[in-house]
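ARCHIVE CARD
CATEGORY: sequence design from structure
SOURCE FIELD: tokenized fold
FIELD CONTENT:
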């Protein structure tokens, strides 16, 4: 009998982890089909004339030791911070992100300090205070939406100032149409009382640090980051997979799935360049492609409800405009370049949602260190006005926005690149409420393992996307047929990529 094989759809973190784990723990041969030409999925790094762009800015951070150790085996952390001659290494980086609003910088998460008061002004602070007291006295009893949820915790004025516009930029729907559970999950620990408590704590911590002559550093958060961006991790994993006998094919899109008697028999893969189709069988199938597309491609008759719910799943899409800039107009009193990794742009008169400063993620992402390599991030919907702009229009639009918010002079924008990434955010609205119907159907197909972010329609970071693949391989190895433990990954939902 020949060796067993597994088809893996998608060469993102989940698909690559599944292949790696199969090679390490089983004798099943993994074959990956990836529709694009890139490794790493959303966690890829695009190399543009020697400047590397991260789609979103990916911190390597996990509460799971298993994931941390896994990453360290591929790219060990550098021994000490700063420049390093090592190539295959994860850098230890400082983390700073702030909010840009009213053409000024605010702490993120928002904190009560002199800068906040100065930037907002006394009249706004007064309104925030009064509306907060009001909502504590007269809370909205039945929270029907995210808007109600946020107003109850922050008061209407603070909600309007810091939450409404940004959330609506990210999701493209008004806050009153988003479920309150979304807030419960994402903004759990944050409320006015935590903001006040942090303000008090900060005074205390600062005094203690001064007493110990131990300034700032103890307050700075760190994170790990591959020297050449997240894609470096996944390119390295792919190299090991090939070395160990796994196969990876690019430009191959899984388009149809043949399911007989609760087993997936084969899939049809289309070459996106030639249109040629190929039907391929395997013993196991891992899918990190969007659930919606997977269900739509099933060749057998499906229960109508499964089709309806899968078809109603919604997503948010994402455009990053990489811009090479001669110099920024915004300054920091102590650093030659503002030190933020990313900035939340709350300004209402522009569409940009976040700004990445790639120099601060890793200086090795930037070819000429005297230049600033920015990522302007736009949340959008496939097919909307932003999505449909030509690359040239999009670049000009992004430059105009940067000029408008006072970040650059127009002539300082030197070069640019546009990357569109569909389905970056699986949405927890649309038909998501009824997702269980789809999940149960997928679970009924014994040899199919949905993994990862869109593969399970979950707001997973890399670590959780990887863990789903690890657990799926473990189940195969141990003969466990119940898939509930795969769905259990990331149900505690205690942390995610920030804010969006
Ligand atoms: C803005 C942003 C910031 C983020 N920040 C962080 C962070 O700081 N830290 C962190 O850990 N995570 C972060 N994430 C999350 C991280 O990007 C994802 O968790 C991770 O990439 C998901 O891996 P995946 O393999 O499940 O899916 P993906 O990365 O989406 O990969 C799926 C792959 O499948 C391919 N595919 C899809 N359909 C088909 C098909 N029909 N046939 C063949 N191939 C197909 C796709 O082309 C893609 O390559 C962030 C995400 C976003 C959007």
């Amino acid at each position: 009998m020949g060796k067993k094989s597994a088809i893996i759809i998608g060469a993102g973190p989940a698909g690559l982890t599944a292949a790696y784990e199969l090679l390490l723990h089983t004798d099943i041969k993994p074959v990956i089909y990836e529709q694009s030409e890139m490794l790493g999925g959303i966690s890829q790094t695009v190399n543009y004339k020697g400047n590397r762009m991260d789609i979103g800015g990916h911190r390597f951070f996990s509460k799971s030791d298993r994931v941390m150790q896994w990453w360290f085996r591929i790219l060990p952390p550098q021994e000490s911070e700063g420049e390093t001659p090592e190539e295959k290494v994860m850098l230890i980086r400082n983390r700073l992100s702030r909010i840009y609003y009213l053409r000024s910088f605010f702490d993120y998460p928002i904190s009560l300090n002199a800068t906040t008061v100065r930037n907002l002004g006394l009249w706004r602070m007064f309104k925030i205070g009064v509306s907060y007291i009001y909502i504590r006295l007269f809370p909205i009893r039945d929270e029907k939406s995210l808007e109600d949820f946020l107003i109850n915790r922050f008061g209407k004025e603070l909600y309007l100032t810091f939450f409404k516009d940004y959330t609506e930029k990210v999701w493209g729907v008004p806050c009153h149409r988003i479920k309150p559970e979304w807030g419960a999950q994402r903004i759990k620990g944050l409320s006015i009382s935590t903001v006040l408590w942090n303000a008090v704590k900060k005074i205390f911590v600062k005094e203690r640090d001064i007493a110990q002559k131990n300034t700032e550093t103890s307050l700075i958060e760190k994170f790990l980051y591959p020297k050449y961006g997240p894609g470096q991790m996944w390119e390295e994993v792919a190299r090991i997979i090939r070395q160990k006998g796994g196969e990876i094919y690019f430009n191959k899109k899984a388009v149809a799935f043949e399911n007989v008697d609760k087993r997936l028999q084969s899939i049809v893969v289309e070459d996106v360049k030639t249109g040629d189709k190929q039907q391929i069988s395997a013993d196991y199938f891992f899918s990190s492609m969007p659930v919606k597309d997977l269900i739509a491609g099933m060749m057998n008759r499906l229960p109508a409800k499964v089709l309806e719910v899968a078809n109603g799943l919604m997503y948010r899409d994402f455009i990053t405009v990489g811009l090479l800039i001669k110099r920024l107009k915004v300054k920091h009193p102590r650093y030659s370049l503002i030190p933020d990794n990313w900035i939340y742009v709350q300004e209402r008169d522009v569409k940009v949602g976040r700004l990445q400063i790639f120099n601060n993620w890793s200086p090795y992402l930037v070819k000429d260190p005297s230049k600033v390599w920015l990522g302007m991030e736009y949340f959008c919907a496939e097919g909307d006005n932003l999505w449909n702009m030509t690359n040239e229009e999009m670049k000009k639009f992004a430059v105009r926005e940067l000029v408008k918010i006072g970040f650059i002079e127009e002539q300082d924008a030197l070069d640019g690149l546009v990357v569109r990434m569909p389905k970056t955010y699986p949405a927890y609205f649309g038909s998501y409420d009824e997702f269980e119907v789809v999940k149960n159907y997928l679970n009924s197909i014994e040899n199919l393992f949905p993994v990862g972010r869109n593969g399970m329609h979950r707001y997973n970071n890399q670590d959780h996307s990887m863990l789903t693949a690890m657990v799926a391989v473990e189940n195969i190895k141990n003969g466990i047929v119940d898939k509930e433990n795969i769905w259990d990954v990331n149900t505690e939902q205690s942390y995610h990529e920030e804010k969006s």
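CARD ANNOTATION: The chain is about 35% helix and 25% strand. The pocket of flavin-adenine dinucleotide is lined by residues 9-15, 33-36, 41-43, 56-59, 253-254, 288-289, 293, 318, 424, 452-455, 460-463, 465, 497 (CB under 6 Å).
SHELF: design records, drawer C
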